[in-house]
Every structure is written in structure tokens, then in C-alpha cells.
Amino acid sequence: MQSKLKHCLAALMLAGLVSPVLADDSSLEFHGYMRAGVGVNTKGGGQVCFNMNGVSHWRLGNECDYTIEPTFIYNAAKSPEYGNWKITFMPSVYRAYGQGELGGEVKDAGGNVVGNFNGTDELVTRFGQVFISSEKIPALGNGGVWAGRRFYDRVQLGINDHFLENHDSDGAGIENVEVGAAKFSYAFLMNPRTGTTSANEQAYEHAFRITDIPTFGKDHALDIYFGRSDLSSSENQTTGAAKKEGDATTRLGLYHKSNGLIGNGGTLIGFRVQTNDAARNAFVAFQQTGSFGATAWDFITEFHRNTDKVTDKSTKIFTLGGRTDTHIAGPFRFLAELGHDNVKADGQDAANLTKLTLATAVSAGKDAGSRPTVRFFVTHARWNDEAKAYLSSSWVSGPRFASVFGNAKSGTSVGAQAEAWW
What we know:
By secondary structure, the chain is mainly beta. It has one domain: Porin, LamB type (Maltoporin, Chain A, Beta Barrel), CATH 2.40.170.10. Helix content is 8%, strand content 57%. The protein has an 18-stranded antiparallel β-barrel. The chain has a two-stranded antiparallel ribbon with strand order 4-5. Strands 8-9 form a two-stranded antiparallel sheet. It is globular and about 60 Å long. Residues 1-17 and 19-23 have low confidence and may be disordered.
């Protein structure tokens, strides 16, 4: 009873805080993203997804997780002289199917495992973004400043869920300062809640970005992402632990975007290299979107080369795939997605995975991007012996894959998924 009373009081307090804001529709923006669904595998049991560990996956009918990200943006102040100021707050939920929340091993003072905490089956709320930002400040070249915790520098290929750039973190910086036709951004990024619990060690990064550099006209532009990360440390005066030396990492990403270069769609060509004393990772990526009649299409191919500088051995990753999304009539659509992944490590045979999904959908509009949508899908995948180790080690669904498919070389899942962004 006391717990229910506390929840009621909290809800009333939240309603009291929000209601004055809702009275002015321009003060509060509500955006977000969510996906959730159910599924089974045809051998028996729950849905199993087909993702090789370390390789981006083809998403349609192949997402074994919940993602819920409601985002509230309060427009706090606006003036020609001081710019526009916003407060962004995003409580979020993420969980892979079959995983408990906040569980794990229980250890004694000596580090010995004495039990296991299974956690909860319910979805647990986290706070993915909480930050203050500004824009259109004349004294900052019509740019702004920001500080807090946020999604930052995200560049994503949608249908295979590969983030070409992703630097989500705590931090502060300036962004979108006009430099001619281009825009400049700089941020100091760090996350004090990850890694060590000691104040003597802290990873950090300097992140630079120049976007919208004109190339071949108004519909063609280049974006440059550059970063330098390292470790700040000192001798621990309590334990006597020595100062730890970091391995500084440098990254450079170049992304050229065009509209109308091929048909009526968009073209993205990307290159990225990241290096430190231990490893050098590089990739090239190509994405082309377009439409033909009632069908929208999306094609992606990538090549990665990850090199261990200590052993001088490399792993090469090649991915190729695409999706079509066809309007049938009214709210009904038909989707198809085919993707192939090839991973070749030096001295080993290549691992191959091919995944095909066919789906029908009921959507809130005629266009391929119309949301909300509910999809009903069947996903079939085939793989070779070399791919089993990658599939079984995927943190999202590896143990589920191993327990269901074992030594098999193919598998099928059937299910439904809801998705929306707003």
C-alpha cells in the first residue's frame, strides 16, 4: 500500500510539472523511437536472430530486442541576440530478448563467485539523454553550445544497423558554427560511469566535426569527422597503484552525400580509419537509396579490414545487401530484404551468413517511411561451419542461437514487430 501511494504521489507531481508546459504547445516537443515484437523459431521456442559477432546485421525481421526512446525537448528561451535554448530529456529502455536486467554474478570480498542474481524480467528505464543545448547564437556564428549526456555524432546505415560514427557520451562543446557554407563542431567527451570506479583513471576524447562542405553543387556535400582519444591517470594515493599509461587512438571519417546522383535517391560514400599502437581498423561503405513506381529500395555494401599490429594479422569483412518496400493498396505493404556477410581472418577459412526476410506490413501512410507500422515476417538464414563461432558469440542472441540450432546450418524465425518514430 505504501509503495502504491508513493507511485501515485510521484505521478501527480510529474503531472503538476508538465501541465503548465503543455498549456503552451510551442514550449514542449515530444519525439521518439520505439520497436518491440514477438517471435518464435520454427524448431520450437522463442525467436532467434542471425547476427555474426562484430559484423553489422540486416535488421528486417532480425531484431531480437526492445528499444523505447521517448524524447522530451523543452524550449526554454528564444531571442535574436541570445539564440534558442533547449533542454532535452530522454528516458529509454533497451533489452535483448532472453536477457534479464541488472543481473549477474555475486562475488565475495576475495572475488570468488558465491551466487547469481537473475535480475528482473521487466523492462528497466534508463536515462539515455539529458542535456542542455543552444543554437542560432549570432556571437557563435549562428551555432551553439551544449553540455550533458547525449547521443552524439551518429552516422548510421539504417537497414543493416551499422553506425559509421557513434560517439554517445557525457561531454560539452560547441556545434554547427558557420564557417562559410560549412559548419564546425568540437566536443570534449568522457563518461565517468564506465570502466574503472577509481578517480585516478578517466578516458576522454576530443571530437571535431566539419559538415556540409560543398563539393559538386547544392545537392553534394562532404562531412569530416576527426577524433583523438586517450587516458588521463595518476598514482592512486590510497592503494599505491601506479599511474596507468593509455594507448591514444586517432580516427578520421570522410562521408560524401549526394541527392539525385543516381535516379531520384540519395548516395552516401564513406571512408573511415581508426588507429592506435595495438590495432588499425578501416572501412569503405556505399549506400544508395531510390524508388521505382510504388517500390522504394535501399542498397548497401561495405568492406572492412581490421589489423592487429602486434601479430600483423588481419580480418576482412565484406557485406552486401538490400531491401525493397512496396506499397500494395491502402495501408498494406510488402517488404523483402536479402543480406550476405563474409568474414575472412588470416589463416582461417571464410565465415559466411546469408539472411532473407519476407514481410507484410500495415502502416499509417503510403510512403515507405510511414510510421507507425506493424510487420509480420518470416526470416530464413543459412551459414557455414566457420560462421557458427561468430553466431554463437553474439552478445544479443549468441547463447539462444547455440542452444536452438547447435550444429545446424540453417534456421527460420517467424514473428511480428511494431516500429514507430515521431
